[in-house]
Amino acid sequence: MAFKVKSTNNNDYRLKPVYGFVDATGCSPLEITRSAGPPKEDKLVIQFKEAAPDAADAAALFKEGAPLGELTLPLKAIEQNDALRTESTMGDAPPADAPPPPPPEGAPPAEGAAPPADAGAAPAGPPTLMADPPEANMPAAGGVSAHTLRNPSAVRLAFKVKSTNNNDYRLKPVYGFVDATGCSPLEITRSAGPPKEDKLVIQFKEAAPDAADAAALFKEGAPLGELTLPLKAM
After folding, report:
1. pLDDT > 50? residue 166
2. Would the CATH topology of 2-76 be identical to that of 130-233?
């Protein structure tokens, strides 16, 4: 899917990205930054339409006919003097028993037979964790990099993020969970400092569906695996 994000208040809000893509059964981060201003309720309207696998220009697609549908994301600013920043992730899978969304008005009926029962199932193999984008590039003067941790496996995972440079980097969160076939945001903030290359090591291990304390799980034996996310401050 390609998406386009529209706001009812372009004076106080900045969006990143405004246009983008979400792969089938995938997800994509959306960063919303609000500047200081009076308390006010606004909304985002996120339009979407189908995109070919090799499509590279989401903005161009929205110049070619009406969108397939849209969703609304309410915005509520309740503190006058604080700049508010939030991060959302688009593409989270609905519950397995959720009813399918109604087709858009005028859409043709679906063609062909129903997909097999195991269509969209998590791939077989050992649990793993992936980061998107797979590395962070930021100015040495400081900045924020938003990432998404993806879990393509069939089990829930807990994660722990370790850094080779705790002086210049702050992570949010340090511990957390990623549901089976789900995703979770990771925010990396760098303070001003000399240009330097560092890395994050993100350890992961299986977690029970009712587990609530990710930090406690990493006190109970070795992690199942880990991935490395390079950090480059230029």
Report:
1. yes
2. yes
What is the separation of C-alpha 98 from the centre of its chain, rounded to a whole number of angstroms? 21
First to last CA, the chain: 33
What band does 96 get if pLDDT is binned at 50, 70 and 90?
very low
91 φ/ψ sector (left φ>0, alpha ψ -120 to 50, else beta): left
* Lookup result for tokens 């993806």: 150
Query: Considering the chain, what is the average pLDDT of its residues?
Result: 83
Query: Which tokens is 202 given?
Result: 């993100």
Domain spanning 130-233: CATH superfamily: Immunoglobulins (2.60.40.10)
The domain segmentation of the chain, as residue ranges, is 2-76, 130-233
Give bridge partners of residue 29 from the DSSP assignment: 89
Would you state the CATH architecture of domain 2-76? Sandwich (2.60)
> 206: which 2 tokens?
């299986």
Amino acid found at 172:
K
In this predicted structure, what is the pLDDT of residue 109?
A: 46
Residue 126 has pLDDT above 90, yes or no: no
Kindly tell me the burial class for residue 39, based on how many C-beta atoms sit within 10 Å of its own C-beta (0-12, 13-18, 19 or more).
exposed
> pTM of the entire structure?
0.53
| pLDDT confidence band for 124 (50 / 70 / 90) | low
pLDDT per residue over 180-215, tens digit each?
Answer: 999 999 999 999 999 999 999 999 999 999 999 999
**Tokens (6 digits) for 126:** 């050992």
